[in-house]
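Q: Okay, next protein. This is Dimer_Tnp_hAT domain-containing protein from Cephalotus follicularis. I've checked the sequence twice, so it should be correct. Can you predict the 3D structure?
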Amino acid sequence: EFSSSYFVVHEILVDRWNKSNTPLHCLAHSLNPWYYSLSWLNEVSNRQPPHKDNEISKERKICLKRIFPNNGEFRAVQVEYAKFSGCLESFSDSDSMSDRRKIDPKHWWLLYGSFTPLLQKLALKLLGQPFSSSCAERNSTYSFVHSIKRNKMTPQRAEDLVFVHTNLRLLSRRSPTYKEGGSKMWDVGGYHHDSFEDVGVLEVANLSLDEPDMEAVIFTDE
């Protein structure tokens, strides 16, 4: 018997899954040697490697076609993936197979991926990305638009305002006035409209780690 809230919770979980189930996520999952190791697969009876999952395989193919629009390169990377996922040729080496779960995925590709150069380059780019939970959290722009004090807007209106505000913010950074004048670098400190007087360089740097060009301006601007 199901509880009355089962379908509500199930719908939330499905929406969350679909939000993270993108072609790029599926490709990164497919290139992680961890999920092909026998020790991982044998932990649970119904586990299967990514290349045997229809949904993941479909999304992976979509992503590879976008990255390699040239038919020749696409076929070549497909063949390389077949060798990797099937433990064929150079990937059939005992060390390569046993290390799939023992060492970091990036290190594994550096050690054993030279025989598949296209796939190795792609795997190092994807698996080298830092983990982030930002897609599952309300970002600062949304909380600025829709908060306890501003909670009477419909979700669609709030999303539209976030879209407009974010794009205006990005466009403003292209303007010369962004680096000079009374309102220069207005968004470095987020939405806390405090003065930067008597603030150390490191404190300011922490607020702008994602903006190397901006940091250079801050450090050189007297």
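A: Here is a summary of the prediction. DSSP finds twelve helices and no strands in the chain. The two ends are 69 Å apart (CA to CA).
Q: Noted. On to the next one.
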